[in-house]
Amino acid sequence: MDDFKQLFEERRSILDGKATQYREERDSWNEKTKELVSQRNEFNSEVRELIQLSDQQKQVREQMNQVVREKKGVRNEASKKVSEIRDKLRANQPEEKPAERGPRGRRERPITLQSLQREFSRLEREFERGEHTGKNEGKVMKRLKDLNAKIRQMKKDQASSDSDSAENEELKAARKEHDEAHEAVQKAAAAAQEAHDLMIQWDKEVNKQRERANSKHRELRNTKQEADKAHRFYIVSLRCLHSIQDMMRARRSAEAGEGERPTARVEVQDLMSKLMSGDTLTTEELMELQRFD
Questions:
Q1: pLDDT over 50 (residue 263)
Q2: 105: which DSSP letter?
Q3: Could you give the count of Cα atoms lying within 13 Å of 98 in the half-sphere of its Cβ?
Q4: What's the CA gap between 267 and 280, in Å, rounded?
Q5: Closest CA to 50 of 210, 207, 202
Q6: Which of helix, strand or coil describes residue 222?
């Protein structure tokens, strides 16, 4: 009988240590879970704030794009006015020589201020729509710069050739109006681009913070699974522990010819009945179960 008693004591000691180990592991995983919940919620809060900032810049961009469209309308009217005055001046000038033929016998279109402005406006619209990206973006920007320089030079040349015209002052005023309208378009477009760049920057930050929040959420699910696993092992250890304790009590009672401690025994049975039926016990009740011997 002493061998059985020693065996029971050894098994009880091992199970008691296992139960304590699993309880501590469970509590440790639960603490880690709480930390991850706090971190995940903090990242999600930052994501919401960044989305608001991005939306604000998007609204600013849309407002400035509307201003750009309005300013372009004014510039187009000014361009039309300049063209009408210039056409009126050219009506009194000799006809231009026919276009010369190129190397392959094709007629080369003459480069005019209008053709340069049309190409500039076309490339500008395409660039605003995002049709030129990557390496092509640099080429388009260089072409726009060259066109702008050519337009300025051609305007200077035309201003010089129109200096003797009776309607020169009217043409100068129209050109000034056009230049002011063009400058207004450029400023509005720069403001819209700045708002767009800021919006893109906030969107990138949103994606970064959202990925961090998702990463914490994935960690959170893992820690909860580990906590649940440790808790299940803890419950199994308690059940095995109390099975051994029941056998040890029965043996002691048989040897001493005495009854068990009724109050403690009834309390243990009540707690074990709740545990076996699937009810959730508090940490204090679980630790109380582990203390009963």
A1: no
A2: S
A3: 4
A4: 16
A5: 202
A6: helix
Length in residues, the chain: 293
Q: What is the overall mean pLDDT for the chain?
A: 77
Tokens of 227: 């906590």
Q: What does CATH list as the number for 2-260?
A: 1.10.287
pTM over the 0.85 mark: no
How confident is the model at residue 293, as a pLDDT?
45
Look at the block and give the residue holding tokens 């392959």: 104
Angle between helices 168-256 and 2-90 (to 10 degrees): 170
**Residue-range domain boundaries for the chain:** 2-260
Residue whose C-alpha is closest to residue 240's, from 25, 5, 7, 18: 18
Task: Return d(Cα 162, Cα 17) in angstroms, integer.
Answer: 104
Angle at 200 between CA 195 and CA 205, to 5 degrees: 125
Q: How far apart are CA 145 and CA 185, in angstroms?
A: 16
Q: How many CB atoms lie within 10 A of CB 182?
A: 20
Q: How much of the chain is helix, strand and coil, in % rounded to 5?
A: 85, 0, 15
